[in-house]
Write a structure and sequence with these properties.
The chain is α+β, with helices and mostly antiparallel strands. Helices cover 42% and strands 25% of the residues. It binds ligand C2E and magnesium ion (2 copies). Residues 577-578, 598, 600, 630 line the site of one magnesium ion.
Length: 680
Amino acid sequence: MDDSIVMHSISSQELFNVKVEALQDFHIPVWVFDVDMLRIVWANAEALQFWEAESDTALYDRDMGSEMSSSVRNRLNQIRNDCQQNSKSFSENWTVYPKGKPQTAEVVLSIIQLACGRDALIVHMLFEDHESSSETLHSAQALMHTSAMISLYDRNYQLVYSNPAARAVAVSEGQSLGALLKHRQDLDIIQKQLDKGGECMVETEVVTNQGVVWHSMSIQLSPDPTTGKKSILVSATDVTERRNAQQKAYVLAYSDSLTGLSNRIALLEQLKRLCNNPTAKFSVFFLDLDRFKLVNDSLGHAIGDSLLVQVAQRMKTAVAHRKAVVSRLGGDEFVVVLDGINDRDASEDVAAEILFALEKPFNIEGHLMRIMPSIGICQYPQDADNSTAIMQRADLAMYAAKASNNAYCFYHSAMNQNNADRLALENDLIVALDQKQFEVYYQPRMCAHTDTIMGMEALIRWVHPERGMVNPGDFISIAEETGLICKIGEWVMVEAMQQQKIWQAMGFDICVSINISPVQFNAGSLVDIVTKSIESSGCNSDKIELEITESMLLGDANIVFETLNTLTDNGVHLAIDDFGTGYSNLAYLQKYPLSVLKIDRAFLANMKQTAILEMILRTGRVLGLTVVAEGVETIDQINWLKKHECDELQGFFFSKPLPVEQATEFMQNFTPSFATDKAA
Ligand code: C2E
Ligand code: MG
Ligand code: MG
């Protein structure tokens, strides 16, 4: 027997060409591991005990490779190579699992040559003092049993090690960090953070064998405990349930329950976020539906709600191809935030897209209705530099659009002043009636066939003590919003009716028409007021015409029908004013006792597009209505209208609205065939 070697197995004699006998008496486990065969080929008594082996042959027969991951195999090969190259020993902490129980210790590894010439590893196991070894043991146990998913990746994000919890959800063995993360850009974020501070926290979606879930990950650069190389330690917990609950709470808090759009809170947060970015540029479109309240009041909230839902859908679709978010503030107010764009031309394109989307009539439970949106546009940063000012200014621009009858309007600084103006006007309006600041002007309406005066339209004027003449366009909407229109409208009615009586007494056989606001119509007392006014003024009701608008016919059909019939029973005639701008529903025209259709002057303003004008004229004729063209300003318009058999004409061509004395003079001095004279 070779005196240099004490062997435990006969075959071992051929295995070593170095002395290992001294190792037999070591009080620590020592064994020789054949990295190629993945077997222990020699072990001392302590090692047998450590591996809980009945005999050395039983231990040598154990297939150590069966439960060894490929990364451990690779690691062992690598250590052998390192030791061969450096002829040095190597030390690191290992956790070994004799009979499945984890044992952690520092191991010292070095090369030993087998008799056949191949190199094997000789392993010395150094347990630390009791306390610290139990600590390592405990941490290894914790690693095995914790529900936290712990993985170690190399610098290329390839998996080096994962604990059972992480392995349980992996889609494949050795799933890399890149394959785990659902969003590839997360990897770049992690990389940047690690480069900066060596650690980071990420909460993101990951791909597991249970599908895509949310993981909260604590990530840090740390040396691989076995190789000492820099690697990435990831400790993750599944936070899907919390994320889902948060998501639900978020949806509730940040979305509008009717339309599903973002709500006011979400919008304000979005604006604040954008304003915090010094390089941001964006445009805000504040949209309001004119006369929506009327739909709600007359057709009921369910129809109003359905209309809003359809409006929301169309708006979303209209801007879907852009970086835009549509929100609903409440009521009929919508806001579109367009990120990245703040130049005028591009914003105009977007406004046109939104308007185009809302142009076609909406069909709500068989009610065909058009809406007329007004859009105010405010741009960041040139118009306002904070979220509150942006909203306020977009709102102002929207009001300016409404007031100017334009579909959209850009904010400009004069509007802030206008807002203060509006408040002042509102206060002044309250006392205007008592202080007799109103006057009624009259504008003549001519017969297109006989060139004679058929009637006079009563149009209110406010002679403000400081501002001078204020036009109805500047105060009727305020009077309507404050409810003052009912008293003001009643005053106009009595004035106009008294004037009819006076003119009749003077021999002018003309009709006086009076504008009725939707607010007066919906107040419920209109019939009483008309009846009383006819009585108190002593007018000839057959010569009184009330101008109502299409929107008033939208309400409960029975109530509308009864109101209109009672009015005509009183002898007055009914005209539809501004026809063509609202719902233009011909069914309404047929159903109710109407005599006159006044075509809105917008249609006359564009004589290049006469198709609609022709259609309205034809419809009026078929329904037996007297058709009046408003806004007649030129002889060409007159000639066209005469040719197309329009019945009556009203406009600046004949006369502007005049104070009562001048209107009387106009009638006194009037000579027929004016049109021929002027044309000549
Ligand atoms: P409206 O009832 O459609 O009245 C016609 C408006 O068109 C008048 O404006 C008139 O001055 C204007 N107009 C008439 N011919 C021409 C023309 O050839 N060219 C142009 N550019 N404009 C023309 P006004 O007097 O400023 O009244 C505006 C609106 O205010 C009226 O439109 C009516 O809706 C409302 N309004 C006026 N008076 C009263 C009133 O007493 N009560 C109510 N509720 N509304 C009134
Ligand atoms: Mg009118
Ligand atoms: Mg009109």
